[in-house]
Amino acid sequence: MADPGIPALAPGSTIGILGGGQLGRMLALAAARLGLQCAIYAPEADSCAFDVVRHFTLASYADEAALARFAQSCDVITYEFENVPAATADVLSRYKPVLPHPRVLALTQDRLVEKDFIAALSIPTAPYAAIDSESDIAAAVAKIGLPAVLKTRRLGYDGKGQRMVGKDGDPVSAFRALNSVPCILEGFVAFEREVSVVAARAADGEVVSFDVTENEHRDHILKTSRVPAAVSDRVAAEARHVAESIASAFGYVGVLAVEMFALGSDTGGRVLVNEIAPRVHNSGHWTLDGASVSQFEQHIRAVAGWPLGHPIRHGQVEMTNLIGAEVHGYARWLTEPGTTVHLYGKGEARPGRKMGHVTRVIPDR
Amino acid sequence: MADPGIPALAPGSTIGILGGGQLGRMLALAAARLGLQCAIYAPEADSCAFDVVRHFTLASYADEAALARFAQSCDVITYEFENVPAATADVLSRYKPVLPHPRVLALTQDRLVEKDFIAALSIPTAPYAAIDSESDIAAAVAKIGLPAVLKTRRLGYDGKGQRMVGKDGDPVSAFRALNSVPCILEGFVAFEREVSVVAARAADGEVVSFDVTENEHRDHILKTSRVPAAVSDRVAAEARHVAESIASAFGYVGVLAVEMFALGSDTGGRVLVNEIAPRVHNSGHWTLDGASVSQFEQHIRAVAGWPLGHPIRHGQVEMTNLIGAEVHGYARWLTEPGTTVHLYGKGEARPGRKMGHVTRVIPDR
Predict the structure, then answer these.
(1) Facing B356 at nearest CB: one of A8, A35, A36
(2) Do A32 and B334 touch (CB under 8 A)?
(3) Which of A49, A167, B50, B249 has the smallest count of CB within 10 Å of its CB?
(4) Identity of the residue in B50, B289, B341 whose CB atom sits nearest the CB atom of A34
């Protein structure tokens, strides 16, 4: 699955980004520092990424004429979210390279396809079984056991499209609560920590991963990331190896994140892959202030055909999301030494909406 | 000269920036990280700052209607260069606060007025004398001696508007070579190092300065800055004190830079002020990668009425400008660990044009 070599973009070239949220915004800011322009394409009029670029397109992902015009104005196209419709990627691909390659979208938009792909690499995941209809439920429960988590195969994020099924729970009503769409049942993993690795792969095959990050979620939304993760060197090496192997197996060009469960030492100290995000990732935001090269810069370098950077971490780093109304308290972070405030320029601070983040760096001395 | 308090801007507010070069561009990128919008006003169609904002105005600084519309779209207005015409600042001030206060422009646009202001603070400068016409030359030379440097009072930068007059040189022909415009004759200073201090002052009077930077020029253009400067603690403290005193005396709001000559220990280890830049400054670019808060962020915080940050330096830092065709060699810096590449998105790499810079950080261990 090697990608054909792409020529390095000259400074001043334009990278098109599908998606106008904070990830697109931070990608555009990273590109600007490297003298590259970005054009943003998004269907939401209040897209915060529009504010940091000269050229943007406000149009539906189904608008083939707008997509064609957009593609023609760009030198290469990338995306900030994994649910880009396949038809959208197809239209764009007719005009310009789309990176990471759209086949990765197909692999990661469906939890079942993604898990089968990972399993085929002999990389462990939580046990899982497909449930396409109610008639599959009994066999799935027999295979996986309870408690378990029922997840829609497509379009889940931040805990949406998931139902816990307890030891004595009712998987049928959980399935119906998810509108009886195709699902997978995942065995419940008694993990010690949730960790993630953000890895970049260049078109020439070089892979560079960041240090393993430890993540805490609240209400299914990432709240805090800490690096380095409190795991053994062996677990850290395994986690990075897993992420790097997946990037290579995808023939990936750009940055991806692999979320993993780190099991306790009593259960072998292994990591199980939870899910793959084929994009820059919230758990990598610490790299903006905590490392000499950020995940956003790595992604831009990769899709521009530039060499990857070799990040040096500035110390211990903690990233905290400002979610919903928490953003109104941003001012108290402004005067803390070593703390950096990022506000995304979004409008209304709705509950659960990621409005900004703060990063604290404690230098290693 | 205290400024009236300005209310803190809410995230999402718009800061207007006069000037569309790399300083405006980096100010806008810093503002974006804080959730603040920028609008750029510049008369050059190829202004590189236009590329990183949603709203810009391409118009002359004399276009009162365009200035009025621009001011009405902003919450506060600042500038990236010191030669903003007084009339331009006056028009804008009718509509919105202009920070730093335009009176600072008047003080720093004229070398004689600036030097008189500094002298009135009992801060040492090189000896100087005004030359308004040829009839002033003999007295000026008698006072200052030769060798000396003849400088136009207004509109000089990067060595433009200057003539060395050697021990046996002809000050009259130097004056004529500068079109006989009003000048000052400055005594030649046998300095040990050129240093600068970038200082920020908030509307509430708080002043925070960055570490003293040592600068090397080539062909009168800054080539390399290193921090910390190789000066004694006493000289460093004096340099910071000088910059902070000037910021306070101006009643300044924003970032300014003070360039100084550090004399050798045989001549008392003092610093003499060379010139003041009422804006972010090339010798402060190292703060983008070498400190937890950059000069650009400090300026944005100050003009937004936000508290200043308290920067932590990440180690020893060296900033090298990419001037003219040097920018074409940017790729070799991309893979050096701890090195950050900044390209300004300017078009043609003309000789003497600042096209980008690279920063190398060596962590203190």
Answers:
(1) A35
(2) no
(3) A167
(4) B341
pLDDT at B198: 98
Whole-number Cα distances in Å, A196 to A148, A161, A260, A274: 22, 21, 6, 9
Integer Cα distance of A181 and B342 in angstroms: 48
Say which of B37, B327, B339 has its CB closest to residue A345: B37
User: Helices (DSSP H) in A251-356: which residue ranges?
Assistant: 287-290, 295-303, 331-334
What is each CA distance from A229 to A195, A213, A214, B309, B363, in whole angstroms? 7, 5, 5, 28, 21
What lies within 8 Å, CB to CB, of B193 at 6+ separation is B214, B229, B230, B231, B261, B262
Compute the nearest-CA separation of A361 from chain B (Å).
8
Count Cβ atoms within 10 A of the Cβ of residue B199 and give its class: 0-12 exposed, 13-18 middle, 19 or more buried: buried
Query: From CA B302, how far away is CA B9, in angstroms rounded?
Result: 10
Contact state of A51 with B32 under an 8 Å Cβ cutoff: yes
The SS3 of residue A212 is coil
Chain B residues touching residue A8 (CB < 8 angstroms): 331
* B51/A32 Cβ within 8 A: yes
CA-CA distance, A9 to A221, in Å (whole number)? 36
Chain B contact set for A35 (CB, 8 A): 330, 342-345, 356
Which of B:40-79 have CB within 8 Å of A?
50-54, 56
Restricting to A residues 117-136, those with a Cβ less than 8 Å away from any Cβ of B are: none
pLDDT block averages, 10 residues each, chain A of length 365: 64 98 98 98 98 97 98 98 93 96 93 96 95 95 94 79 91 93 92 95 97 95 97 94 97 97 80 96 97 97 97 95 97 94 96 97 84
Q: Chain B within 8 Å of A7 (Cβ-Cβ)?
A: no
Amino acid at A309: G
What distance lies between CA B288 and its chain's CA centroid?
15
In angstroms, what separates the C-alpha of B56 from chain A's closest C-alpha? Answer: 9
**A356 CB near a chain B CB, below 8 Å?**
yes
What is the spatial distance between Cα A20 and Cα A81, in angstroms, rounded to a whole number? Answer: 9
What are the structure tokens assigned to A321, written together? 């999301």
Burial (0-12, 13-18, 19+ Cβ within 10 Å), A45: exposed
Q: pTM of this prediction?
A: 0.95
Query: CA-CA distance, B210 to B189, in Å (whole number)?
Result: 25
The DSSP output letter for B306 is P
Instruction: Kindly state the helix (H) or strand (E) to which residue B267 belongs, with its residue range.
Output: none
